[in-house]
Design a protein that fits this description.
This protein is mostly helical and 105 residues long. The protein has one domain. It is 42% helix and 6% strand. Strand 1 and strand 2 form a beta hairpin.
């Protein structure tokens, strides 16, 4: 890897985590760098049938870390508190909190 390509990779990572100028104030999970291709999961999604427990935890840990630097963290915490108050279940990472629920049949 050349120095130029390493710098380019670093710049893309910074853009993804902290956003470009046109994305300032936008939640990290809503930024273009984190939009999945159709049929793919995001870092913030709940478990997938094909995914190992370890892979899910690694993915969700990365999402939780990004939540901690997100400008929308307070709004997400308020939304999560509202969901809890209403007794609605959340599957995935919101406001740095990874949650998982399973149906009982």
């Amino acid at each position: 890897m050349t120095a130029d390509s390493a710098l380019s990779l670093y710049e893309r990572a910074v853009d993804a985590a902290f956003g470009r100028e046109d994305e300032q104030g936008l939640a990290v999970c809503q930024r273009a760098a984190f939009r999945p291709e159709p049929g793919r999961r995001t870092l913030w999604d709940g478990s997938a049938p094909y995914e190992t427990w370890r892979d899910m935890r690694v993915r969700q840990s990365a999402a939780a870390e990004l939540c901690m630097v997100c400008p929308a963290l307070a709004a997400c915490r308020a939304w999560l508190a509202d969901m809890d108050e209403r007794g609605l279940l959340v599957d995935g990472v919101v406001a740095g909190d990874a949650r998982m629920w399973r149906r009982s049949y």
